[in-house]
Design a protein that fits this description.
The structure is a single chain. A hairpin with a 2-residue loop joins β8 (264-272) and β9. This protein is 38% helix and 19% strand. The strands form two sheets. It has a six-stranded parallel sheet, with helices on both faces. A three-stranded antiparallel sheet has the order 7-8-9. The chain has eleven helices and nine strands. It is an alpha/beta fold and 284 residues long. This is Pantothenate synthetase. It is an enzyme of class 6 (ligase). Catalyzes the condensation of pantoate with beta-alanine in an ATP-dependent reaction via a pantoyl-adenylate intermediate.
């Protein structure tokens, strides 16, 4: 099956998947909003190691955008995306329209308990964002009923929220987190990078450099000193505005209290020009 199948409706997708499930094929879902890059392709490649059939979804979900302008300017290069998926050996792509996922007249009220981490970091800057994310991921899981689903580590907090949503609904899906794919100079790949001017693109390297500093000097300084020194990277760069830089517990996203904690991650968000970028590195 080298041909990339395209599905616009849940019914067509289910009809395709049913016989495959009946013959005990393992299904992986790679949810995306399109504007694909090598980071997404790495998710497909990892999915191929963990499942028999790979379904990628492309849907720009309106309920997770806290700024309507952001939704409007989100890139949608669909021909490019389909070519990339076909090249990567993806089996099917689910490309519903908004009406298919949010039918007119349906009760779309959604609010679930995602734990305190929902309100930290990104949750503070984009209120309601993770309710929208978990709402659409639940809809995609219902449509595909995958055995495994692939998410990128770059959206570290998002992965945590999706795991909390899975626990909330007791869904039998295994989440696999895939490492961040970076450009040669260290910038984390992102669909938003196309909005960076040449100068912004140069300035954007401060995110990965400040994170790498924490990794490289973790033994030398206290947590407080590491954070202060990392934040200082942003002091004199015109056109870069730091939203947060934190060393957090990877399970709760609360600020880390001690270097001895088992799961530590450094996370950063900054506005570079008019584009907001996020990045993180796992310390341990």
């Amino acid at each position: 099956m080298s041909e990339l199948e395209i599905f616009k409706t849940k019914a067509a997708l289910k009809a395709f998947l049913q016989p495959l499930k009946a013959s005990a094929k393992k299904i992986a879902l790679v949810p995306t909003m399109g504007a694909l890059h090598n980071g997404h392709i790495s998710l497909i490649k990892l999915a191929q190691q963990n499942a028999d059939i790979i379904i990628c979804s492309i849907f720009v979900n309106p309920t997770q955008f806290t700024d309507p302008k952001d939704l409007e300017k989100y890139p949608r290069p669909i021909e490019h995306d389909l070519a990339m998926l076909a090249d990567a050996g993806c089996n099917g792509v689910f490309m519903p329209n908004v009406e298919e996922m949010y039918p007119t007249g349906a009760d779309e009220a959604w609010h679930i308990d995602l734990g305190n981490a929902e309100f930290l970091l990104e949750g503070e800057f984009r209120k309601g964002h993770y309710q929208g994310v978990t709402q659409i991921v639940k809809k995609l899981f219902d449509a595909v009923e995958p055995d495994v689903a692939m998410f990128g580590q770059k959206d570290f907090q998002q992965v945590l929220m999706i795991k909390n949503m899975l626990a909330y609904f007791k869904l039998p899906v295994t989440i696999i987190t895939c490492p961040i794919i970076r450009e040669d100079d260290g910038l984390a790949m992102s669909s938003r990078n196309i909005h960076l001017s040449a100068n912004d693109r140069k300035n954007s390297l401060v995110l990965s450099k400040s994170l790498q500093f924490v990794i490289d000097h973790f033994q030398e300084y206290s947590l407080k000193e590491l954070e202060e020194k990392a934040k200082a990277f942003y002091n004199n760069i015109n056109g870069v505005e730091l939203d947060y830089f934190t060393i957090a517990n990877g399970d709760t996203l609360e600020p880390a209290k001690s270097k001895e904690e088992n799961n530590l991650v450094a996370l950063v968000a900054a506005k570079v020009g008019s584009t907001r970028l996020i990045d993180n590195m796992i310390i341990k």
